Fold each of these.
Amino acid sequence: MTLSNIAFVLLPIAIAYGEQVADPPAAHSPVILSAVNDRYTGRTAFSFEGRQKPPVIRANPGDSIDITYRNEMSPNANSNCATGPCMNMTNLHFHGLHVSPSAPQDDVLSMMAMPGESLQYRVEIPHNQPPGLYWYHPHPHGESNKQVLDGMSGAIVIEGIERYVPEVRNLRERILVLRDKAFEGNSPDATHLKDIAEIPPGRCGSSTEQLERIFTVNGTVRPQIPIAAGERQFWRIVNASPDLYADLQIDGEQLEIVALDGMPLAYHNPKHAMHRASHVLLPPAGRVEAIVTGPRGQTKAKLRTRCFDTGPDGDPNPGMALADLVDLKTDAPATRTFPASIQKPVFVPVSNAKLPSLETTPDFTVTFTEDKQGFYINGKRYGPEDAPMTRVRVGKYQHWRIVNKTHEVHPFHIHQIHFLFYATNDQREPQSEWLDTVNVPVEGSVNLIMDFTDPIIRGMSLFHCHLLSHEDKGMMAKILFF
Ligand SMILES: [Cu+2]
């Protein structure tokens, strides 16, 4: 009997943990996905092949992903969303993909399924899509937070990262999706879950609110991840929580980071395909892909998130244990066939010399504010009938500045593109990074180079805070690409 089994027997509240982490099922186009209400809990969920296990959708650059998305949720939601009772409307966003924002592709504005309705997607992955980890989740304004918090999210892998990082070709791949287990702040469950996650007593950072959720890994609270001592594995991690930050670290080990937000580091910087770090901050929606080595002689190594200070008005975001690394010979490596159809890798080197001076007036400034009534971008609270806040002629780079005038952090995200994040609080980053989601510090700013050069991206799109309760309450705006 393992220690976790004993805990399971002795404790009055039965929350299983210590299971071996499960690989999510894989799906290739065409995919049939349903939105359902769990028959016991009523929570919203994705259903795939009859099980509530959202698949990893795998595709090659140049492929189309066809998805039939059926809304089989109840028309009577019996729960409250950001601006009133939930209507159980839903749709899909393909986070990070450089695809059209118009139907039937990554359109979250006009494509919407009410209960009983279906949506038909055909997402055309460009040949030059950076190969890496992306994800899909519902994006109905006002109801995004609830559906994603309930666990409606899944990974997307665009194949071919081996072209940029040959080292990963024969490594065991692990797709790890971080979601939430929510609980009442002062229930017996809360105490038990906080114990399992080894959350230290006392406060982390300046948030004063009560903790109401912990992370799960592929749907399980604190699973075990088999990795033999000295074995190298390729971990692809997405933070699919609607509002928890993950500052990830592995006890005693460095992460050999090869991609962030789906973008291989080599794509823009061929000479630096890898970056070693002791920890990496993933805001909600962020991804990291890294080579991980099984600890030697360290029998209790964990994957954990460190305490992250979200600011005095922010949510609690304590350090916690996410998973235990166990020294077991791994099951057969997940074989990935190198897609022969894929062309040579594309490299787009960007030199630091091209970065605009921080004194240069930005082409556009996004200012986040909030009050008791809502959350705002440039003083406006989002409405579905809004005109675009900015219009961009496709074909150029733009310099954007994101300003946070609140007392909590906000992760900035824009659909369809990646940007180069190069300065925080008017200080150059030691290492600029290509991302699609970036944290904006409390009463601070970030400077970005927006890549609006892709001719595929035309139409109405969005940028917003990726704390989804803020997005639901108005911290979002439209952008027209023309
Ligand atoms: Cu926000």
Amino acid sequence: MDGSTLRTKLPDQGATETWGGELAAVLNPGLVIGLKGPLGAGKTTLVRALLRGLGVTGHIKSPTYALLEIYEVSRLYLYHFDFYRINGVYELDDAGFGEYFNAHSLCFVEWPERALGWLPPVDLWLELEPVGGGRHLTVSAGTVEGVACLERLQKV
Ligand SMILES: Nc1ncnc2c1ncn2[C@@H]1O[C@H](COP(=O)(O)OP(=O)(O)O)[C@@H](O)[C@H]1O
Ligand SMILES: [Mg+2]
């Protein structure tokens, strides 16, 4: 741990869910969180755990087809994007997605690498890698706000 990168092993889905709940506790409005990793790596599973940790109840759909699912908890807007299926960032502009990245929202983005250049700075990168039956997770900060989050996470 060098202050801006953290690595951990998530041996099963339950570990991913527990870890997501811990990260949720140190997030604040205005953050953009990018999730990387191949199909089936557990990106949606992790966002679901984060959303639960932030207080979302009820069914949480994967935004694979809709590109975006929106939640509101105590006047905080939570946006869960999946850019796997986009053909170009013009689609994101056409859909008006840009305005969702603001100081009052928290944005989770699967496949952020498909919208680099369009996305505002990613504060936290979560990269999942399937290893054996489990996952390795690398968390890195892309901004000072991201570094602050990682520091809070170390203190939990
Ligand atoms: N830490 C883990 N170890 C093993 N399997 C996991 C872990 N986390 C999630 N899974 C499983 O891997 C799959 C991940 O699917 P999903 O979250 O939709 O992936 P993605 O969004 O990256 O395509 C699910 O079947 C889930 O049960
Ligand atoms: Mg997914």
